[in-house]
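From the thread on structure requests for the teaching lab: each student submitted one protein with a one-line request. Submission from student K.M.:

"Model DNA-protecting protein DprA from Candidatus Enterenecus faecium, tokens only."
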Amino acid sequence: MSHLKYWVWLSTRRGLAGVTMQRVLDHFGGPERVYYAHAKDVDELTGLSGLARSSLKDKSMREVERILDRCDQLGIRVMTRQDAVYPQRLENIPQPPLVLYAKGRPISLDDQVAIAMVGTRSCTPYGERVAGKLAMELTHGGAMVVSGMAQGIDAASIRGALMAGGTVVSVLAGGLDVIYPRYHRFLYEDVAASGLLLSEYPPGTEHKGSHFPVRNRIISGLSLGVLVVESPRRGGALITASHALDQNRDVYAVPGAIDAPASEGTNRLIQEGAAKLVTCGEDILCEWRDRFPEKLGVQPPLNPQVVEQRLQQLEQAQPAPVSPKTAPAVEKEVDNPESMEYIDWKECRKNLTDDEQVVLLALQEGAKGADGLVEHTQRSARQVLAALTMLQLQGYVAQGKDKRFRAAVKLKME
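Reply posted by the TA:
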């Protein structure tokens, strides 16, 4: 327990994320050494924002004690990268979360044939039905479904897996005590009872719009492959697919009608060769059976009548409409450029990929939507979306209420 408070303390430092966080860890040699570092040592570390420096110098443990007390009250377990139970699969991805909060059954995640199922919130009846069917088939075959908790494809996938009697892992974009959307309370409780709820955010954290794309790297990181069931051209599920490709995970996609906007993203993944076409659960299971014969032994097919009955039950579980009260909050808009912090570009760029540098420079000229950035940078949509996710994670970019992206910092080019 002694090490735990230092990991939680470091994970709550503002202005530190991603590559910058890892650089601080590497420099000092661990969270406890970061905590006990003198102010002059923090000041000597280049490439940190003023916010990050002041946050690292704040040694108060009040927030940490509040978080850990709340976890005890709610029965939430806390895993750090130092713990043996921390998923090794996440250690092998770029920018693994320092801390994971868990509620539900203890599951050895690295031993599972985990397949992520993702897709649009605004799914069609076709997408909802296919998600439920594939989740049932994957679960019946011995795989474990990993998803979020959003309405649409996430919910249909979770329900399908639960109907097949499977274990489900749901990764949330807020605290484990904040159920979003609220009408998924029963689904939340079902997952906690038979599976596992995970989040990198401490209890009490609201589900912010910027958290979702950042959360997606955990969904793909825990999984051997990612199945995109239904996604429009700019869908958030494509960000998960992008993370999967960057993490050397397999990507699968369900084809849709050529004139269906909800399937434009999945059809393009297949067309570009980024995803393997899937029409049934066996298309995925057969690729992993040799590696996991004890988990994916050939099962008798599901009774078609039982499948149809369960799909009808799934279709009757219509999600409630999203209202302003239950919609995810959006990060506060950066509306006063004069108040933005200046950071040294020479130091900043050391922590960024080429795509992230190009996107951040483009946003220095003014706010742009995702489509505008694709046109301006001449990068693919996948490259731009992935770069935006990482830039938001590091606090360099924010998304406004108008859905456009803005630089959250000013670059000092000298």
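TA comment: The first strand starts at residue 77 and ends at 80. The chain is about 45% helix and 15% strand.
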